[in-house]
Amino acid sequence: MMLRTSQKIVWCPGCGNYGILRAFVKTLEALEDNAGRVVLVSGVGCHGKIADYVGVSSFHTIHGRVPPVLTGIKLADMSLIPVGFAGDGDAYNEGIAHLIHAARKNTDVTMVVHNNSVYALTTGQATATSPKGFRGRSTPEGNPEEPLNPLLLLLAAGASFVARGFAGNVAQLTELMLQAISHRGFSFIDVLQPCVAFNNTWELLRKRVHEVKTAGSREKAMELAMDPFATGVFYRESRQVYEDAVTAPEPTSTVEQVLESLR
Amino acid sequence: MMLRTSQKIVWCPGCGNYGILRAFVKTLEALEDNAGRVVLVSGVGCHGKIADYVGVSSFHTIHGRVPPVLTGIKLADMSLIPVGFAGDGDAYNEGIAHLIHAARKNTDVTMVVHNNSVYALTTGQATATSPKGFRGRSTPEGNPEEPLNPLLLLLAAGASFVARGFAGNVAQLTELMLQAISHRGFSFIDVLQPCVAFNNTWELLRKRVHEVKTAGSREKAMELAMDPFATGVFYRESRQVYEDAVTAPEPTSTVEQVLESLR
Amino acid sequence: MDFCFRIAGMAGDGIRGAGTIAARLFARHGYHVFANFEYQSLIRGGYSAAVVRVSDSRVGAHSSREEVLVALREHAAREAGGMHRVVVYDSSLFSMKEGYGVPMKEFADTAGAPEIFRNAVALGVLTWIYGADIEVLKRLYRDAYGRKAEADVKLAEMGYSHASAMLPRLRELRHAGRAKPVLTGNMAAALGAVKAGLRYYYAYPMTPSTQILHFLARAGKKLGVTVVQPENEIAVAVMAAGTAYAGGRVMVGTSGGGFALMQEAFSMLGMAELPVLFVEAQRSAPSTGVPTYHAQQDLRFVLHAGHGEFPRLVASPADAEDAFSLAGEMLNLVWRFQVPGVLLMDRYLCESAVTVDVEPSAVDVREPELWKGGDEYRRYAITPSGVSPLAFPPEAVVKVTANEHDEAGFTADDAATVGRMYDKRMRKEAAIAGELRGMSCVRRWCSGSDAVVTWGSAAPAAAEACEELGLACLQVRYLAPFPVWELEQLKGKRVACVECNYSGALRSLLREHLCVDAELIGRWDGRPFTPEELVHRLEEVFR
Amino acid sequence: MDFCFRIAGMAGDGIRGAGTIAARLFARHGYHVFANFEYQSLIRGGYSAAVVRVSDSRVGAHSSREEVLVALREHAAREAGGMHRVVVYDSSLFSMKEGYGVPMKEFADTAGAPEIFRNAVALGVLTWIYGADIEVLKRLYRDAYGRKAEADVKLAEMGYSHASAMLPRLRELRHAGRAKPVLTGNMAAALGAVKAGLRYYYAYPMTPSTQILHFLARAGKKLGVTVVQPENEIAVAVMAAGTAYAGGRVMVGTSGGGFALMQEAFSMLGMAELPVLFVEAQRSAPSTGVPTYHAQQDLRFVLHAGHGEFPRLVASPADAEDAFSLAGEMLNLVWRFQVPGVLLMDRYLCESAVTVDVEPSAVDVREPELWKGGDEYRRYAITPSGVSPLAFPPEAVVKVTANEHDEAGFTADDAATVGRMYDKRMRKEAAIAGELRGMSCVRRWCSGSDAVVTWGSAAPAAAEACEELGLACLQVRYLAPFPVWELEQLKGKRVACVECNYSGALRSLLREHLCVDAELIGRWDGRPFTPEELVHRLEEVFR
Ligand SMILES: Cc1ncc(C[n+]2csc(CCOP(=O)(O)OP(=O)(O)O)c2C)c(N)n1
Ligand SMILES: Cc1ncc(C[n+]2csc(CCOP(=O)(O)OP(=O)(O)O)c2C)c(N)n1
Ligand code: SF4
Ligand code: SF4
Ligand SMILES: [Mg+2]
Ligand SMILES: [Mg+2]
Fold this sequence. Notes:
The complex is a heterotetramer, with 2 copies of chain A and 2 copies of chain C.
Chain A (H helix, E strand, L loop, with lengths): L16 H15 L6 E5 L7 H4 L3 E4 L5 H11 L4 E7 H7 L1 H10 L4 E6 L34 H8 L3 E6 L3 H13 L4 E6 L9 H7 L1 E2 L6 H7 L5 E7 L5 H5 L8 H7 L2
Parallel strand pairs in A: 1-2, 1-3, 3-4, 4-6, 5-6, 7-8
Antiparallel strand pairs in A: 5-8
Chain C lengths: L1 E10 L3 H14 L3 E8 L5 E11 L12 E4 L2 H5 L7 E5 L9 E3 L1 H7 L7 H12 L4 H12 L4 H17 L15 E3 H11 L4 E4 L6 H14 L2 E3 L4 H13 L4 E5 L1 H6 L1 H10 L4 E6 L16 H5 L9 E3 L4 H18 L3 E6 H5 L1 E3 L43 E3 L13 H23 L4 E5 L4 E4 L3 H12 L2 E5 L1 E3 L14 E5 L5 H10 L4 E4 L8 H12 L1
Parallel strand pairs in C: 1-4, 4-5, 5-6, 8-9, 8-10, 10-11, 11-13, 12-13, 17-18, 17-20, 20-21
Antiparallel strand pairs in C: 1-3, 2-3, 2-14, 7-14, 12-19, 16-18
Helix pairs in contact in C: 1-4, 1-5, 3-4, 4-6, 5-6, 7-8, 7-13, 9-11, 16-18
The complex binds thiamine diphosphate (2 copies), iron/sulfur cluster (2 copies) and magnesium ion (MG) (2 copies).
């Protein structure tokens, strides 16, 4: 199994996506034989191209719809390890409904958000996480909206594993990915990802990003989540996973028997 | 202006929706002349029928889409007072994306959710707020999902006015509606609404519902929100409203001038 | 023998339950039965009715010639309009000048049962009127409700004996054969799909498809079908895409408004070549429309669903038996050709309960072409038919994508690859048409020189009318690819299309594909056709 | 005079900027210009090109006969294929056997400017090659970038003087008339809508419509247009519904995938009778497809968009001038008839920059029929045309709904009301057709006995080819209602349809509405037609 395909990477030089890709390849290396069970699901945006670059099974889906694809795959084959890669526009704007419900239902899948606080592939509009005042091409006079706090939201929605990484810290991010994958339940990692073309936060992030210790309760984790530069695992809890509750057992009746009962 | 139309009400006898309707009519009475500026927007479900019963302008929209209609109306005419009535299935399942973004953007509109924790009009399936174990027609062996905490979620999303009422306390609900409408920004009221046909919570709610005092901070409000039977205004803050930031001023150029500049 | 009666009241009176039990009662006597249900979008009150037709030959529609009305509410008695030979009403609630009063509510009170149990009294009365076997009714209740059936049994007996003292007996039904199963179109479609290997059903509740969700939520546990109700319709369709990708046979169900929300996902299935079967259960539209009423207004919408061009399968069953077969055939076909498919149903078909004569063994699981292993797997390998052999993770590295791609599934945008892959996908249309040529895409219900062409649940009523008038009646079962080869026979004939819509969607297809001009017999007030109405309207056209 | 050149490099080289400045340079000399941009779905790297055609008569398409190539990257030089008379390349980055090396990067370094400023050197070189006025170029830079223009100006001069020493001069352009404005189809549509009273534009970014969002986000502040980018496309369409309800003239923009998400809302607009104008900017589909490439694959999808039946307007412009007029006409029409409308654009039209000769005064604001006051307002008052007079809150109590309803806007489900209201809405189709009969729904670009029928941005190239071959060329501007009355003339003729798709959507409409069979000249590899290709392919058909 080639963990990197021979496809040419077309991200801008210096893009934070390289760090995320690197961390994921390292994660796959660490998974050893289990890497063959990983299915990568990606959204639409610069981040989505990651499907072309990693030599595992993949489903490059439409904009905003990574979580239901993950769930659909897990339900079909529980032996698979679905890992999603979405953009902030993808996950927090277009598809936020799915994210919240996946967190609540607690399917055993992992969701990584390349949070560059901008719609990059469409050339730089403000997303839900763009800072107030952000000047993009659809907000030439500055973004009038308050940014969303995705970690707080996911904690409020009931996610059972909530973490934040930084594209500039591949070692930590690899560790987070490994923990997320081994966590049984819905695992969410928001990754601070500089976009050199439209929202270059390298300097800011290199200066401000720091690591926190996992909180003992959801309430405490919410407090941690108020800090936009905190990284690490914020919260983790063990809870029933969705697929265990809903998957039908092997059939015990036939259609013929059901028809008979309707006579 | 007739605040009640002559349309026959087709809610089940004993339905909590009657209390919400009564509270809203009282609210309109209290608004006096301003009642003529109220535009009622309703979703699809039993709750949505309220549009037929109230004699103000109304837009009975499709399932899950109350918030964008409210915003669209407010942007078109800031003198209007858009008030939305949605179901829990409507607001927390089908259309949760809009709710979160409306809260974040802080348009000056009011959103009332008839939260009966069930899809009632489609005869009783589990919604996002149905209790775990709830036996509905699509969950004959009990709902396997953890219920969503809508107040917590809305607080995390940045709503500037967050309240909960009870369909059995019309006086309090009227007061909440009046405060919500007078609050400048996105006002959210979750209303505990018994559905006698599919989720009769009258007894439970009559026993458990109690009132809390408004919290001084969002964090404190989140703590209050952990109690599913607490009612009252949980949180209120004053913040820039969306329409003030985005509405274009009167034109200063003509199309001809723009064309000239493109020569 | 062919008769029809109505049980009417309001929502909350158990009208649907009564109609279903009535249908099963006569089905157990060996008769053919069709029960249409009319109800409003509300939970208590309003108007609700079951119209049950019983015959000794096959029936696929209710009739407008009703002979008995059982009215559980005064307004339901008033709406009748005097066509009934016998009117029975609940004399403990109201009184009428004509008709037979039965104190149903009093009986229920006596039995200590809630008001909704009045419907058992009504059934006892009907059993008497038609000379059916009260023991069969009692057994039916016990089979259906087990130990909870005793109040029903008791009240049915009270109704029966009260009626035997006071009411006329219109017929003397005897056992006419073996008990027949009674299914709705929804149940039939669900079972047909299960027979073809269905393992997953995803749906968000929406009339008139909701019953599939309810039925499979119960029966699925036994039949090995995982049933999930996601947060909204977009999640439904996309989740199904994920499941199909990983090898799970999946169906989703919705109505027009929900299918509208699934359009982007539908197009993705076309590009990614993933097989998902959609049940689109039409109801009176546009938009929320008249949500509990009938229509066939979404044909063109479904045929052209999703942006861009890609092959798809669309089929529309006429009745429950057809729904059983087509659901099975379609599930196999979408897998064989790796395309999205739509089973286009409608309110009348979905919810009406009817006796069926299905031969379950006619449907089975057909395996698609699977990858035989070897070198690197190419998910989109180019083949003459356009169909690429399938593999699922973790057996191979399987790369699917909503972007245009090369054979291995990597994003591509160069003109040569784009053109080649587009051709590959579109070639499947010819392959599908080739397959359909060996199947029955158009059903000839009866023959004649002038022809009626119809689709969906309009067919049985149309066929009945055509039979009477000596017209040919053709039902188009497969609508995409459009089976021109079975319809060339229409050229030069006088043709009318019967469909529950305003614009004549099928009529426009006859023009588009065959340059055949047809008269439209349409209806768009939310009500299905009856054979009697169609006789009248067809006479006008073919006179 | 008619020539064409290419500037090519990769994303990040400022190719689009260079092409636009080049177009404006020749437009300022008074020439007609058309610039096509090709780029991939990535931000840095890959292949990116501007193909600019200049002529002394009107041009609506680029040409495949290019005479000059300016290559900013080696791979862009390699892809050329040897057709160019003159190849210019950046000799500081790579070397070539043939062609003229200009050390563009070195020049930029000398000027202390980043690499992207090489494009100004390229423009200086082109100015020399075509004998254009370097002063005009410098003024253009200063007009466009103000004080930030000086590096560009300097580098343009360096390119010009370097070229004047070493490169041939192919032409001696003189000022041929007044400077013409250069617009893209996107900008033209935006401005046409503003001229017709647009006050709100809502959109979620999606190629190739995104430019409207960017353009109006800037220009809207001056033009009185409120621009909002909501959380997703569903919010876009539904928010627009709210705005239209309250009286705001609103347009939304998206591409096929976004429009797919808006289907349920589209159907609601049909039922609620709310006027919203949609720009659907087609790109290569299905699904994400080839997102920055061209196609005309969504015609049938748009014509049948939304579940259920309801009248709609669909129009498709051929070029920027047409986009200006049609956007204006359509905005007025959707308000007049209170229906949703789709302005069906495509990548080639949306993003190509072209000189236009618009007469802004041809478009103005037409008021719909307003309620005159009086008794209670009935939002859905039944009228002969089906159009009900409009009022907006708080002037009246205005009740709109997505459910079927009575005239006052209250929910209704009885057969009589449902039928009547359905009729009322559908009657508007005839009223719209009546209005269209007085307008120009089909444009005859040139005449001949055999006919080419086409739509959208395929028209200018098709017309050019037809002109050369002596064929008639008809462009169908309004596609719903379909203007049969202007197309009856096709009956009995030899007809070909030119459209960038595989299935021949327009061709199928000619069959459906006119029983006219046409040959299809299609293309589906993401590339638009050129006139030269069409001459060749039309010759094959009409030979
Ligand atoms: C339904 C839909 N709407 C819009 C688009 C256009 N689109 C493509 S990429 C993109 C931006 C993605 O932003 P984000 O998810 O943040 O990813 P990034 O490019 O920043 O990695 C958008 C809006 C689309 N492909 N599909
Ligand atoms: C897009 C769409 N999906 C599904 C439906 C069917 N539907 C109608 S009412 C309803 C349930 C509404 O539940 P809720 O919002 O909680 O309202 P309630 O009836 O409980 O007041 C649903 C799913 C619909 N009308 N539209
Ligand atoms: S545009 Fe931004 S996110 Fe996209 S590849 Fe470039 S740097 Fe990365
Ligand atoms: S079903 Fe429930 S919510 Fe609906 S009207 Fe009846 S009691 Fe109220
Ligand atoms: Mg982003
Ligand atoms: Mg509810």
